[in-house]
Amino acid sequence: MFGPQSPVTFVLLIGAFAGLIVLLVRSRTVVSKTFTGTMAFVPAMVFGIAGVNRYYDYYNSWSDAWDDLVDAPQRGVTSMADLKTLDRVLHDAVTNREAPRLGLTLQAPLPGQASGITRPGLIYLPPQYFRKTAANRLFPVVELLHGGPGTPSDYTRVMKIASVYLKLMASGLARPAVLVMPDSNGGRDVAEQCLDTVNGPKDETYLVNDVPADLVGRLRIQPPGRGWALAGYSEGGYCAANLGLRHSTAYGAVAVLSGYFAALHFSKLPQRVDPFDGNQQLRDANSPFSMLRTLPPGAKPALPPFWVMAGTDRINDVTDAQHFVALIRPLQGDVTFVGINGGGHDYQTWRRALPQALTWMTNEISGRPDPGPAHAAPSAAATPPAMPGAGRPQGTGHPATAPHEGTGPRRTSSPLPAGSAGPARV
User: Mean pLDDT across the stretch 360-379?
Assistant: First the structure.
């Protein structure tokens, strides 16, 4: 009744502000006027924050808001100091009998050897992962990118993804997969668009190469390719569309929720910077609209299947999404567009779309393992570009590479390099 989005809360805040203004008018001394006027700012400020929260449908309870404010440990999440303790954590999870019933959510630093970035990430292992019948099974993976600013915990605290996914699997709609939620920005006050920023963070390298390299070989999961999906909302939606085109053989499905399709002029690091340092060629090579519009006549690059969503009340999102679908449809006739009726650019809309996205992705990537060695670590060379400019390290100023052509909109996967088994899978 008195939650952060409750009408009662807004009425109380308005009442408090009005009462303080009345006291301010009636105050006779400078001290009382100053004190009352200062106090009046508090309900006004909280009202503004609550209004933004209600618009984006972020916090639904005071406990969620408080936990996020103080960065409290998440309930139901097992934290690890590093990935070296993974074997012990998984063994303990099986013995306590909760994991085979509910699955297990892990939080651990994911170090990036190629990018030099180390950030905490979240991993959800479904109940099937812990069952004896799946002891030799390699699970597909869904990599989920958050918005910007944002953190991986937005998926667990706000989107409640574990409970949503459990219900989908129990109903038979979604297939079991490992969910990986990396930190694509490095902080709640940062928005880097998942780019290899010129003279800055190498987020693209981190997300495409380092995160899979951290987990393939340590977990019983398939390598990047047809068994690996990529998804995101808002800025994460742009990231999914951009990386899905630039590294098309690394993914077997891409879901874009309320994304945009041309790189923003500035990233937030937290200072505002041009991520391409004025290089228009690099900007075009990281803008899905530009990549698709500039394909040579008759080119048929190998692309993963796309699922694109927008809230119908957000006209710009719908227009951009439909334009992207129109550009990609000649290359992929079965591209899916979903309009969420009455939806906007907010968490309520993304929560409504999430079950459809998870259902589509997990069915798309299940049952089609890659032919390459499952234990190999990914590398930049293992995912040749499929679009103009894809795969080229940013900031070099080199000409964009030619598109990777094929015989049609087929799904392909490059073999991963052998001989780098890494630690044993558990």
Answer: 61
